[in-house]
């Protein structure tokens, strides 16, 4: 390649010149490599982590990662990755800008729902399975955002101060698992880390930094406009590609000076060759040089009416069914006070067809705004299936709860509703005297972007509360209907203690952000076609102080945020402070019951395995999510319990199975800052196996 051709490979074509969210300018000529004619396309980068955004019509609105995490099901994580990859490939997209693996440091974090929650192990498993799925169909994955990047306020320049051990064990862990999955690319974040911008932070992305020392062989691409200072600063620090390639107010455009930097010797041609090689390697490795579809959409046309938007249909029945399956598998049953008469449910779940009059209350039950925010979903005036911003997706095929409920019960019950707003008068009036009231409430957040503000929330939530007086609506409906079922759609924890123990509230489902098949997925759980097996991927408490962190708002630009909490986030912090949340990490009920017995432990310094017998002791077939927490030797300075294993085991009523969970050497290790290595600490480890962090059924020990 000529110098100009190499520059075209490492620099985007511009924010408003890209047919995709990002493109490059490849050489206009072909090359013969080992007798094969190779033509490099204008590599297409596109959002987002939960499915195609700005890709024209006929795409699927998948659930975001936070709901996939709630399934605690690796097979579903992988299957979702495959399905997303198939749709990206069908649109001619070479690079899937996902998964997002940013740790939910604070429950109000605007983009917390794009990732897998506050636990690094769960996030790592989600990242690994997603990447393996996406790349199995020949689409590159790009894990993001290498920072840490954990809030929207001041994201374009705030400085995170984080110590080496905390970074390695907590924020780095999902990126480490991404490297293990041979991820093609990683995206650096907007903010600074320990005083240096992420995209020219050699400690993160340089030859001797975290990323390369872990064995990463792909390329580092900037977040859109996340580059600053000179071309040499960024290239020599380890940035392989700049997107979108021009200056976009918040930054960017520095690689406009890259050719001059090479000419002047500030960047060696060997380094430029390395950048291009890293970009081409995954393109060739995944077979994108042979038979890959051409780009067939135009991201500059969110309505899909442009001549360049061919609106190729990449939806399939299998993808729709998978979204519905994940939606039901991620629904967390928080409460169920079931009352039966001669085997028929009259209160609580699962519902029976003996119920004849149903009230549906709350605007979260109605169809969402299908024409909102130019592909950013910047509204919350209907059912909440995903947050807003670049991590959102196409919502055009959303099936809202009201439609699904009305359709399902049409042969045996009548439905009355008050869903156009959270009317504290109209809602209770509709619910009074009904056999069943289903009340919906939600909370939403998203990306700040170019200062996208939804109902006064600048990306990060202003508080933990349900929107539109949702808590008051729940209380008022429960006051007049003695069989009230609450459904919460939310991006994260919301306060519940003011109403969750109300005697008339017979069941609570935390449905999270379930994607486009929200209504049908909910029907499956409510009427028992699916036995709920979702588990909370975070703790739920009313008080933000229970989480030990806060969002930095304020008016001073680009604050310094010291991560003084170290390794203690969410349940780790709560355990250390003897805080009992309203609902704990890993919690979730079932329509059946399970027993745990006969724990055996085999351990050495290189690995440990734990076997036990799991039995479905109830009358309903269902899946249990056994979770393994490890307690390190006291000298290690770790939290009391950390998640180090889980499984998803389906058992018929009365069936039993021996389950084995294996913990690797690295998963038994701590990061030693002196030796700069993973070290298994000496001493006695405690083993906790159970149904949640607070519901431990079996305990054991081993000594190293």
From TrEMBL:
Keywords, in A-Z order: Carbohydrate metabolism, Cellulose degradation, Glycoprotein, Glycosidase, Hydrolase, Polysaccharide degradation
GO biological process: cellulose catabolic process
Domain Fibronectin type III-like: 624-693
EC number of the protein: 3.2.1.21
Tagged with keyword Kinase: no
Cross-referenced PANTHER family: BETA-GLUCOSIDASE, BETA-GLUCOSIDASE F-RELATED
Family, per entry: Belongs to the glycosyl hydrolase 3 family.
Protein name as catalogued: beta-glucosidase
Stored InterPro entries: Cellulose_deg_GH3 (IPR050288), Fn3-like (IPR026891), GH (IPR017853), Glyco_hydro_3_C (IPR002772), Glyco_hydro_3_C_sf (IPR036881), Glyco_hydro_3_N (IPR001764), Glyco_hydro_3_N_sf (IPR036962), Ig-like_fold (IPR013783)
An example Gene Ontology molecular-function term: beta-glucosidase activity
Reactions mediated catalytically: Hydrolysis of terminal, non-reducing beta-D-glucosyl residues with release of beta-D-glucose
Pathway(s) this gene product operates in, as recorded in its UniProt entry: Glycan metabolism; cellulose degradation
Keyword Ribonucleoprotein found: no
Enzyme class: hydrolase
